[in-house]
Amino acid sequence: MQDAIVYFDIAAVVIMFVAMGSVLIRKVTHGPTYYTYFSLVVVITLTCLASMCSQLYDNAVTNAWIDVSVRSNVARDLMRMAYFVLRSVNPLAYLVFIAVVSNTTHRLRRNLVMRLAFWAPIAVAMLVILTNPLHGGVFAYTNDVMHRGGLMWVIYLCAIYYSLWGVGHLVRWRKVLVREKFLALMALYPMNLVAVLIQTFMPKMRVEMFFTAVAVMLVSILVMRPEEEIDDLTGTLSLKSFEEMCRRAFIIERPLCLVFIDIANKDRLRALAGPGMFRNIVRAVSLQVKNYNRRGDELYYLRNGLFCISAHNLDASESLAIALRSAKEGREAAKALPEQSMVVQLRTCVVRVPQDVGDDQTLQTFTRRIGRVIPEPCVTTYEELSRHKGFLLQMNLANIVERGIAERAFEVYYQPIWNVQQKRFCSAEALVRLHDPEFGYVSPGLFIPEAEQSGAIVDVGRIVLQKICQFLGTVDFAATQLEYVELNLSVEQCMQPDLVPQLLGLLKDNHVESRRINLEITETSESYSQTVIDNNMRALAQVGITLSLDDYGSGYSSLARMFSLPIDVVKLDKSLVDGMGDPAVRTVVADTVVTMQKIGKKVLVEGVETEEQSKELVGMGVDYLQGYLYARPLCEEDFIAFLMERNASALPYTHSQQGSCS
User: Fold this and answer.
1) Which parts of the chain have pLDDT scores under 50?
2) Residue 259: in which H helix or E strand, if any?
3) Percent of the chain that is helix, strand, coil (3-state, to 5)
């Protein structure tokens, strides 16, 4: 039986060394959670070693394996005292770990009474254990056999006290933990209870530390998951960890001070240095900020050059000091890189929770939009930003889009397109606009990306499509003598399985011929199914709806895509027109026009703003011209009046005239 006792202790030591080794191998000793877990593992490992050593010594003395002349009662007593000290600390250390994992450590020290309740029991237990040589009330040896004294109940009560506190804390804050983490953290308590029961009825079966070690290993597997919580690039905490931390903070009402540090010129750095060197820049910034960090603060990398320091118990001046210091350290990061001429520009913002931000959704919205609401490199605060209307607009885009959908407030404006050969306006591009009752005119460059990100773009597109079809079926549109209207469908709309019947149904309901619609499509990323989109486009083309390839020349454009779909018109992007002052760009535009026309495509050029550009493009043989030189986007009323006048007189262009509602 004695051998079995030793085997349990040895097994516990092995398990704890494996747990400690996994922490070191995975390099997860930084950050409050991982630092606390590593400390817990060390304490329990020392407890297992103390238990094993004291038991081995007792067994050796009992079996006369050690000569009487070399026995040391002092060493024996010290080993046993070390075990009781460490064993008493275990429940306290585990309670602290639970509080750190759940982000509720502030609850343990929120006032003097709570702090006294937290420290008093362990202080009493330590006093009783350390004074045992004077009174022998905890343990004593008689004829080399250990006997537990009457003061042992103090140690038991201390363990029960912290265990009940730990169980209550877990139950109280279970909402901040996922189910598997909650169960893994709770498992230690029933396992310890089983171990106590076993030792009560079979005193020589010292399985308590073995059960504790198994419970800690379970925590290591189910709670400590660095592959999910640590960012691979920087070694800091990840975006997922940040989102979980914020969610918990609002549930437990924990004050936070968040210092956001964003690489403001990330796009330029990535373009100049390439993706690989940009990753090195991010690592360098991360290292600089991490080295400056105060112990106890958490550093998160939120992707795309954005970091966040989660600092606790700071006032506004201290927060700004950290922000300024972090920005300085970040700017120094590029000096360690080969490309020393590159300058890292940072924008830094201090956000206090809950003083500045009262809910998790608002905080996550700010995190996503920090590059938009802080356009220039600077050090600022959320409080200062919130005074500006532009900031409020950015932060409320989701609500603005939802309100626009609910009230069907999206309007369609039309920009006429000039037919070079016919010398008249033959078509127009439909453009969506939004006037919000609170914020007024909202740029499409703001609400369209928001709608695309949230998925609301499908509902927006459906509203716009309905309004266009209704307009195409009116007598007023027929009077304009336009051939068709171009409409740019979002990629999400193109992916809809009911796109074809939906569009055909709208055309039929409004008595509109399919040839009156031209759909503009753009290049799509690999995250979308090109097959589904192409099948929808071919089905629409078969019923007489024409297709255009939009924004040709603004990025990657595939000739194979034009051959795979029945494209009628290729639209050259405004960036090509703006660059025609460069002879090389002018040559590219001219060659593109010739090439497209040779393969049977019409060429439309967007963004024409000067007569010089117009004459040059006409000389190249383009088919259609669109831009402010000819007309700005107009609401239905002004659009009809404009076309009735211009097409009747066959005037080639007008210098950006606007109507009453444009």
Assistant:
1) 1-4, 68-70, 316, 334, 336-340, 524-527, 556, 652-658, 662
2) strand 256-263
3) 60, 15, 25
Task: Return the DSSP state at 230.
Answer: B
Q: What are the residues facing 488 on neighbouring strands?
A: 520
SS (H, E, C) 116-162: HHHHHHHHHHHHHHHCHHHHCCCEEEECCEEEECCCHHHHHHHHHHH
d(CA 239, CA 259) in angstroms, rounded, equals: 15
DSSP 299: E
Specify the DSSP class assigned to residue 294: P
Residue 42 tokens read as 């060390």
β-bridge pairing 298-301 and 440-442: unpaired
Interatomic CA distance for residues 352 and 316, integer angstroms:
8
Confirm if 595 and 557 have CB atoms less than 8 A apart: no
Please report the DSSP string for 368-426 in residue order. Answer: HHHHHHS-SS-EEEHHHHTTSHHHHHHHTHHHHHHHHHHTT-EEEEEEEEEETTTTEEE
d(C-alpha 493, C-alpha 491), whole Å: 5
In this prediction, residue 120 carries a pLDDT of 94
By the 10 Å C-beta count (0-12 exposed, 13-18 middle, 19+ buried), 628 is classed as: middle
| H or E segment and range at residue 361 | helix 360-373
Rounded Cα gap, residues 153 and 136, in angstroms: 13
**Residues recorded for the chain:** 662
Per-residue pLDDT at 633:
94
The torsion region of residue 525 among left (phi > 0), alpha (psi -120 to 50) and beta comes to beta
Using CA of residue 180, residue 181, residue 184, residue 187, what is the dihedral sign? Answer: negative
Task: For residue 170, give the nearest of 159, 157, 181, 158 by alpha carbon.
Answer: 181
What is the Cα–Cα distance from 568 to 555, expressed in whole angstroms?
20
Q: What is the pLDDT of residues 47-76, one digit of tens each?
A: 988 888 887 777 666 665 555 444 567 777
| pTM, 2 dp | 0.68
